[in-house]
Write a structure and sequence with these properties.
17% of the residues lie in helices and 34% in strands. With 309 residues, it is an alpha+beta fold. The chain has a single domain, classed as 2,3-Dihydroxybiphenyl 1,2-Dioxygenase, domain 1, CATH 3.10.180.10. An eight-stranded mixed sheet has the order 2-3-4-1-5-8-7-6, with helices on one face. The model has no long low-confidence stretch (mean pLDDT 95).
Length: 309
């Protein structure tokens, strides 16, 4: 039994129209039915994000993870401080619904793996002693590039009041693996086979909540170009262009209408077999970026907890 990868996340939001604009500007495809908007990446066959309108404020409703052997997971959940729960009203009853020890709602589903994104052109860099591109420019004029088209939902980062406890639950009850961490402040978890460096992560906060969802694009240029374009459209804060130490991915984060974040990424570390991977406990100085612009003052602020206060 094990989690195989991310499926989707669902948020309750106060302004559905603002959410539809933000996420379609980000390049996701929307289907709207009254007060529910469902989004997917072009070329993918299932939704990766759902917004439920009409809420008093933004709040994480649940995340969904692809998994296998759900009957064994159900037993492990009860043994490691979680609960098997009924599907919330109005939501799918298939799969397995569980609550972790902090009350985080997780929907485990047995669905096929993602449609493999189309192969993109190799990102070529002329380097000292290694010239791979001659007599041609690497870049088109700015107007020669199409709008963002994210390829897949790569990972979800959530807030947790006890990061080690959250990691213990998803590794011991859900069969995930710890990829890396930075003390008890942030931790990154992967599937145990053929996984991006992380598909689920936790950052320390007084309570649970949604921090960001991360979407893969073709190369670092797309990260920077799409991140800048979405920042200009949203009029909110951003952080990027930069590169993480943990996971090695290039990033650009853009703040959504409610203070949480959307990330474009490329070039993520890959763990083919977690048994052959050695997790590293990084210093706090490497918990966010290897290089990049200054971190926004509210980048790790959990507005969902503030609203509860």
């Amino acid at each position: 039994m094990a989690v195989l990868g991310p499926e989707s996340l669902t948020l309750e939001v106060p302004d559905l129209a603002a959410g539809i604009k933000f996420y379609t500007d980000a390049g996701l495809l929307a289907r709207v039915d009254d007060q529910i908007a469902r989004f997917r990446c072009a070329g993918q066959e299932r939704d990766c994000l759902t917004l439920i309108g009409g809420a008093a404020r933004k709040r994480l409703h649940h995340i969904a993870l692809r998994a296998e052997v759900l009957n064994e997971i159900a037993v492990n959940v009860e043994e490691h401080g979680g609960k098997v729960v009924a599907a919330p009203d109005g939501h799918e009853t298939d799969g397995l619904w569980v609550a972790d020890p902090h009350g985080l709602l997780i929907h485990l589903v047995e669905t096929p793996s993602d449609t493999v994104p189309p192969q993109v052109a190799q990102f070529e860099i002329n380097a000292p002693g290694r010239i791979v591109r001659t007599r041609r420019s690497a870049m088109l004029p700015g107007h020669g590039y199409k709008s963002a088209e994210p390829l897949k939902l790569g990972h979800i980062l959530l807030f947790s009041p006890d990061v080690p406890a959250s990691v213990a639950f998803v590794t011991e009850a859900l069969g995930m693996g710890l990829a890396d961490k930075a003390q008890d402040i942030i931790a990154f978890c992967c599937a145990r086979r053929n996984s991006d460096h992380h598909v689920l992560a936790f950052a320390k906060s007084p309570g649970i909540g949604f921090h960001h969802a991360s979407f893969q694009v073709g190369d670092p240029d797309e990260v920077g170009r799409n991140g800048r374009a979405l920042t200009e459209k949203s009029g909110k804060g951003d952080w990027g262009f930069g590169r993480h130490t943990i996971g090695s991915n290039f990033f650009h984060y853009i703040q959504d209408p409610w203070g949480s974040w959307f990330e474009y990424y490329s070039d993520m570390d890959f763990i083919d077999d977690h048994a052959l991977w050695t997790p590293t406990n990084y210093g706090i100085e490497d918990s966010l970026a290897n290089w990049g612009p200054p971190v926004p003052s509210d980048f790790v602020h959990n507005y969902e907890v503030e609203a509860d206060g």
